[in-house]
Design brief:
With 280 residues, this protein is α+β, with helices and mostly antiparallel strands. It is 49% helix and 13% strand. The strands form 2 sheets. It has a 5-stranded antiparallel β-sheet with strand order 1-5-4-3-2. Helix 5 packs antiparallel against helix 9, helix 5 packs antiparallel against helix 11 and helix 12 crosses helix 14. The structure holds a DNA duplex (13 and 12 nucleotides).
Length: 280
DNA sequence: CACCAGGGTATAC
DNA sequence: GTATACCATGGT
């Protein structure tokens, strides 16, 4: 395993990897294993060290550094410290959740994943993504555990829409996946948020998921039912406020560069305590 | 049985 | 521009 030494900080990998950002990580024997398109990333945090390895290509520094945004790590943690002193709920959320980072996930897998996420809960989304991998991905064994990679464009485009719908259990969203596959077939490398809105099944919220979790956008956050609950509960913002106006309010309140990470804290924090209405 | 889940589309006004 | 029905699937 490779080692990355953290400067006296502790990342909350449970929330970062198993929360709302990605649906492709699992925790086995205290190691996290993540399916990142053709690769598996294995990681564990012990004391102030991150131990990591990649498969099947070993020691893929480029992948690890990019996915975990290592080059921006301390800058981003600084932003969290600034936010904490500025807002009481962020302060509570950081106190409870510790340090979170926003991953930079590959565009194709992220787009398919969040198209599938619409109007469903996280366990069900996970299950569908896993179906994609098991049925259409490549088998790869790591530590005697069987994984399946996320299928690529060339593979998925061969699958009949009705078969895909039946096997992955994504229901009516299969036509949205098809639209995404056509988009990537005609798209050369660079993807912008405005392009994503041309895909059927992608509206404001899912486009923001992809922008934040894959394209590195920082000045918006996905406004789903949980984010709206957080805004209504903590900041008395009516949930009927227009989507774009809501983002503007967040930019004004938290600062333009902080909306994504602030939103991530509010999302993960309220999801834990919403039922009890008690926010320690 | 009703209602909900990291929503979006089509249609109607 | 805004409101509403509808969309599959599985869990509670």
């Amino acid at each position: 395993m490779n080692t990355f030494v953290l400067d006296n900080i502790n990342l909350n990998l449970d929330t970062i990897l198993l929360g709302g950002q990605s649906f492709s990580w699992c925790k086995i024997n205290n190691f996290y294993y993540g399916i990142v398109e053709d690769n598996i990333i294995k990681i564990r945090q012990l004391g102030n060290k991150l131990y990591w390895q990649t498969f099947p290509e070993k020691d893929n520094y480029k992948l690890f550094y990019s996915y975990f945004q290592i080059d921006n790590l301390y800058k981003n943690l600084n932003l969290i410290d600034n936010l904490r002193s500025k807002d009481d709920y962020i302060r509570k959320a950081v106190k409870y959740l510790g340090y979170l980072i926003i991953l930079k996930q590959p565009i194709f897998q992220t787009t398919i994943s969040f198209i599938i996420s619409s109007n469903r809960n996280i366990p069900l989304i996970r299950q569908s993504i896993q179906n994609f991998c098991v049925y259409y991905g490549e088998k790869i064994i790591v530590d005697d555990i069987i994984f399946y990679t996320f299928p690529n464009l060339d593979k998925l485009i061969q699958i009949d829409e009705h078969i895909l719908r039946y096997q992955t259990k994504i229901g009516y969203r299969s036509q949205y996946v098809k639209s995404a596959l056509e988009f990537f077939t005609n798209q050369n490398v660079f993807v912008q948020k405005s392009d994503l809105l041309s895909i059927k099944g992608i509206g404001n919220k899912i486009a923001d998921c992809i922008a934040v979790f894959s394209l590195g956008e920082r000045h918006v956050t996905p406004l789903d039912v949980w984010a709206k609950r957080a805004l209504e509960t903590y900041y008395s913002i009516n949930h009927k406020i227009k989507y774009e106006d809501c983002q503007k309010w967040l930019q004004n309140y938290f600062g333009r560069e902080n909306v994504a990470i602030a939103g991530q804290y509010l999302f993960e924090y309220i999801r834990i305590f919403y039922k009890t209405k008690n926010f320690p």
